[in-house]
Amino acid sequence: MPTYYFDMKDGVPARDRSGLELLSDGAAIAHSKSLADKVRREKPKGHPDLRVVVIDESGREVHCERIYSDAT
């Protein structure tokens, strides 16, 4: 199974060093949406551009999930 990394970005990225083995890009995207939902519930202050960026094991960006919509 491929390994995917879930970096948190708000300007400077916080790198995910361990990654997670998942079956497909689709599974990684679903996981990023779940992570974003968890962060939304925690309501971190001072990070209006926060997002989860999914990177595959080759270094390709697979998906970018915004934590807050433009309306938030």
Structure description:
It is a single chain. The N and C termini lie far apart (36 Å). The chain has 72 residues and is of the alpha+beta class. It is built from 1 helix and 5 strands. A hairpin with a 1-residue loop joins strand 1 and strand 2. Helices cover 25% and strands 35% of the residues. The longest helix has 18 residues. Strands 1, 2, 3, 4 and 5 form a 5-stranded antiparallel sheet that branches. The model has no long low-confidence stretch (mean pLDDT 89).
How would you briefly describe this protein structure?
With 72 residues, this protein is an alpha+beta fold. It has one helix and five strands.
- Strands, total number: 5
Helix content: 25-40%
Low-confidence stretches: none
Radius of gyration: 12 Å
- General form: globular
Proportion in β-strands: 25-35%
Counted by DSSP, the helix tally is 1
Largest beta-sheet details? 5 strands, antiparallel
Mean pLDDT: 89
Order of helices and strands: EEEHEE
Which structural class is indicated by helix and strand composition?
Answer: alpha+beta
Terminal CA distance: 36 Å
Layout of helices and strands:
Layout: E1 3-10, E2 12-14, E3 20-21, H1 25-42, E4 51-56, E5 61-66
Antiparallel strand pairs: 1-2, 1-3, 1-4, 4-5
Keywords:
single chain, 72 residues, alpha+beta, 1 helix, globular
